[in-house]
Design a protein that fits this description.
The structure holds two protein chains of two kinds. Chain A is mostly helical. Chain A has seven helices and two strands. The chains are: A mainly alpha, B alpha/beta.
């Protein structure tokens, strides 16, 4: 008989959707800031100004959301905990990595049956969390330059001196594209799993619940 | 005497001082202009003007040794040609420049002797100004003066100085000689003489007003101005060019010159899309400007190239593009083209996977629970 399992607790869902909204807004405004394609005729307009204000505002939202999610790795359920994101640390994790990879590459009939993240997804998220961290640090380092005596500049000065201003700018730019690539993959995989596993994967990120058949575990 | 002190405290330059400068051939107007420019450049309250005038008068002139290594003499040129309004008359005549390869009358052993004399007589009390970077490859043979390597000279002269001022980007950060692949192993003064007190005045060339102001600060307060994490005085490098730029309103509005000479460029719009590095560069160019405050690159219609930032030749290029080229890709491949390629490749790869997965029926789970309606 199918069971209803509460997999994604509310902080997980909330930070997930805050991340989605901020990443969309940050990418759109960021692309404009990097290469302003609109040229406006009126001098009293404030297009770049607004783009930057929105970018910085959502940058704070995104940073808080990522930090809350990282903290929740130490308080949440087993699916949210940090251990779920390092499958390579256990033997069972390795079995799942190889099993999921084989299924993705059509070498195996069924993927390993898991309640939370599958092993490959968990590895991808670990990498994405690193990208997020680099993005936040490089972003606030670039942002902090408006006030060289301010808090952000004093915290991020070593990063700027080490990687150079333009180096950080290029990194910030490239990571955006990597995250966009990840988002495409993420939506596709969630959709695929929703069809193949039939456990309500897509709806689970809204409701938190998945339909699990205990005999498959 | 009491009257003069009162005047100085009120920021007034005492009459006696003005008269003394007039007898030296500097008009009161020029001297007052000089004092007010210095006060403003150092971001001091205008009431400090009297104190500055008094300090320049005082009998505390430090001997100066000006050394040039891997440089183009651009900083010397910038300083000699400074007439803010007559900085040469006021500062250069006033300072005791005991050694300066370009302007000294002495040559050979005579010049070396003058330098040595200053170093011995004023040990720990003289100022050193260094122009150009210092080569270290192959024992420093790429720059030798009087049979001694630049590295040895710098360590000896800066080591027993009161303070060293590195002028120009080469002396401050290595500059163009230190740009990749840096065949001579050129390094900055700070790196060559780690223990010395060094203040950096980067710029290509440095802004002579900033050097004069630093010296005036030294004369007035007996120490060099406060510096940031890169050893640059905060009064001159404490703000980003972009944040004080006269074209900033066009940036915020969203008005950009797309090419040199186009309609936007002729209207003085922002040079951001032409690769201006103002948002990356800390310098007081927009407020102090160059050549007697006449102009500076952005005012003249050319973007900033970030010449006063560390390793500018390597990190700020290409000068006419916003972002550096991506290492390992063709010169014309921009970060955005590569990024778009990554996103498109992801979409195509997973699209293909999706088609294959949709055709695949053998991996359906929970098929035992399926009921056809």
């Amino acid at each position: 008989m199918l069971q209803l399992r509460y997999v994604w607790e509310w902080p997980v869902r909330l930070t997930h959707w805050f991340n989605v909204i901020s990443l969309i807004v940050l990418s759109v405004t960021g692309i404009y800031i990097g290469d302003p394609m609109l040229s406006v005729p009126q001098t009293d307009s404030f297009v770049m100004g607004w783009m930057r204000v929105v970018h910085f505002g959502f940058a704070y939202l995104f940073a808080v959301s990522v930090v809350v999610r990282l903290l929740w790795m130490f308080f949440g359920n087993s699916h949210a905990r940090w251990k779920a994101f390092v499958p390579w640390a256990s033997k069972e994790g390795w079995r799942n990595i190889i099993g999921t990879f084989s299924w993705y590459t059509f070498l195996r009939k069924k993927p390993p049956y898991v309640v939370g993240h599958n092993a490959l997804a968990a590895m991808a998220y670990s990498l994405v969390f690193i990208l997020f961290a680099v993005q936040i640090v490089s972003g606030f380092a670039l942002y902090g330059q408006y006030d060289p005596n301010g808090l952000w500049a004093s915290v991020t000065a070593p990063v700027l001196n080490l990687f150079s201003n333009q180096g950080l700018r290029l990194t910030h730019h490239m990571i955006m594209w990597l995250v966009i690539g990840f988002a495409i993959h993420h939506v596709y995989s969630a959709w695929l799993m929703d069809i193949k596993e039939k456990n309500g994967t897509l709806s689970s990120i809204f409701s938190g619940y998945k339909f699990i058949d205990p005999k498959d575990l | 005497m009491q009257k003069q002190e009162k005047q100085v405290q009120d920021g007034v330059i005492p009459e006696e001082i003005l008269q003394r400068w007039e007898t030296r051939g500097i008009s009161r107007r020029d001297f007052m202009k000089f004092c007010s420019v210095m006060t403003a450049t150092l971001a001091l309250p205008i009431t400090m003007m009297g104190k500055i005038a008094e300090a320049i008068e005082g009998d505390n002139r430090p001997p100066v040794i000006w050394m040039e290594f891997l440089g183009c003499t651009g900083d010397t040129e910038a300083f000699l040609r400074a007439n803010q309004p007559t900085a040469i008359d006021i500062i250069l005549d006033y300072l005791s420049i005991d050694y300066h390869e370009t302007i000294m009358a002495a040559a050979g052993h005579q010049a070396e002797a003058a330098k040595r004399q200053t170093m011995e007589k004023y040990k720990g009390k003289y100022l050193v100004i260094v122009e150009g970077s210092i080569p270290t490859a192959e024992g420093g043979i790429h720059c030798t003066i009087g049979g001694n390597s630049a590295l040895n000279i710098a360590r000896e002269v800066c080591g027993s100085a009161l303070a060293t001022i590195a002028v120009g980007s080469c002396a401050s950060f290595g500059g163009i000689p230190a740009a990749a692949p840096n065949p001579t192993g050129a390094i900055s003064v700070t790196k060559a003489v780690p223990g010395a007190t060094v203040m950096n005045l980067p710029g290509c060339p440095l802004n002579a007003t900033n050097l004069t102001a630093s010296i005036v600060h030294f004369l007035t307060f007996g120490k060099l101005p406060a510096t940031d994490s890169l050893g640059r005085p905060k009064f001159a490098y404490g703000k980003r060019i972009h944040d004080n730029c006269e074209r900033r309103a066009h940036f915020d509005a969203g008005q950009y010159a797309e090419g040199f000479g186009d309609a936007g460029h002729r209207q003085g719009w922002c040079l951001y899309k032409l690769g201006c590095k103002g948002p990356e560069t800390f310098h007081n160019c927009p407020t102090v400007r160059y050549n007697e405050g006449t102009s500076w690159p952005v005012q003249a219609g050319h973007g900033c190239i970030g010449c006063s930032e560390p390793q500018f030749w390597d990190t700020m290029t290409p000068f006419y593009k916003r972002l550096p080229n991506v290492p390992g890709f063709g010169v014309e491949a921009t970060a955005d083209k590569i990024g778009l390629g990554i996103a498109a490749a992801t979409a195509v790869a997973f699209g293909a996977h999706g088609v294959a997965s949709a055709l695949r029926k053998d991996d359906d789970m929970e098929s035992d629970l399926l009921k056809e309606d």
